[in-house]
Prior knowledge:
Layout: E1 2-12, E2 19-28, E3 31-40, E4 46-49, H1 57-73, E5 103-104, H2 107-115, E6 119-124, E7 128-135, E8 138-142, H3 153-163, E9 169-176, E10 181-189, E11 192-193, H4 199-214, E12 222-224, H5 233-238, E13 243-248, E14 261-265, E15 268-277, E16 283-289, E17 295-302, E18 316-321, E19 323-324, E20 330-331, E21 334-338
Parallel strand pairs: 5-14, 10-12
Antiparallel strand pairs: 1-2, 2-3, 3-4, 6-13, 7-8, 7-9, 9-10, 10-11, 13-14, 15-16, 15-18, 16-17, 18-21, 19-20
Amino acid sequence: MRNVLDSIQLFSRKDGADKEYQLRLVQIENGFVVEYSNGKRGSALRSNLKTPAPVTQEVARALYDKTKKEKLRDGYTGSEPSETFVGTELAGRKTSFAPHLLTACDEPRARQLIADPNYVAQIKRDGERRYVAYKDGKITFANRSGLEVPGKEEIAKSVEYLANQGFTGFELDCEDMGSYLEIFDILSIDGVDLRDNGFLERFKHLGQLELALRRSQHGAILRIVEILDEVELEYLRANGFEGVCFKRINGKYINGRNEDQYKLKFWENATVRVKSKHATKSSVAMEMLNEANQWVGVGNVTEPANVPRPLVVGDLIDVRYLYAYQGGSLFEPTFDKIRDDLKESDAVMSQLKFKRTAQAA
C-alpha cells in the first residue's frame, strides 16, 4: 500500500543555482514516511527519506510541515522566483532588518577589551534575536534572518504603549526572552536613522525609551540592557549568565561581523538536528553536518518536560555543552531551545569547540 497524502514541488535560483526540491508525505503499510527528491532542475533527482523508519502520522506531518517551512524560508518557491520569497507563504514578510553580529573572542582578548576605554560592555542574554519596529501605527517583529515573525500580545501591547509616549516610530534590536524583551540597541527613532552613529550615541537614545518605560509596568516587559560599570568575569560566570558583549563606543551598526562588537560566552552552544527519539526515555539522538555535508551522530540529549512542544525528528535545536570530542560527540549536552528560525545548513560541526589534547591527560 502506498498513498501520497500531501506533496509539494519547489524551485530555487538562490546564489545563481537552479535547484528543484520535491517533498511527499506518504502512507505505507506499517506507518507514514516523508520522502524528498532534490537536484538540478530538469535533471534526474536524487530521492531519499526524511524518516529512517515509518512513524506515526502526527510525527510525519510535523516533519513534512517543518521541512516545507524551512525550504520556503531559505528562498524556495512554488514556481520560478522573480525575487526571494515572492510567490510563497513568506511573501511580504522580508523586512529591512540586517543584524550586526557579534565576533567571538577568548578570555584573554576579553580582558584586553575590559581595559580598553574605547569599548563598553553589556550582559549577553540567552534568548532569540528579535527586531522590533513601530512605524505608522504598525508593529513589526523579525528574526535573525530578517523575516517577519509573530509577536506575543503582551509584548505588542508594551511596544504600543511605548510608541504612545511621544515617539513617532523606532527600530529596536533585542533578545526575545519569551515573556519579555531585552533591548540592547536602537537603529532609528522618530524617523532618524541611527545606524551611522556610534554605539554610545545610539545608547543615549535608548535612555529616552527607558525614561518613558519607568513610569509604568511595561518596563518589566521591555527591558533596556544597561552598560556595565564594572565587568567581573568570574562573578558573571558563577551567576549563570550566558556571557558578555563588548562594543566599540564609536562603532556604527553594520550588517554582519567586524571588530566593533565582540562576545565572550561562558559555555559553548551548538545547533543540532534531532536524528531520532528514544522509544521509552525522554531523550533524542542528535546529528550534525560534517565537512563532507553528511549527517553524523553527536550523542543524545534529554528532552525536558517543559519544552514548548514535543520534539520531532528533523527539528533543529540548540544545546549547551562543555566541549566536543574529536569526531563530534558532545560532552554533557543540555537542551536549550528549539530553533525554528534556522536552517539545516546551520547545524554544522565546524561550529564545535573541541577538547584540547592537554585536557585529556
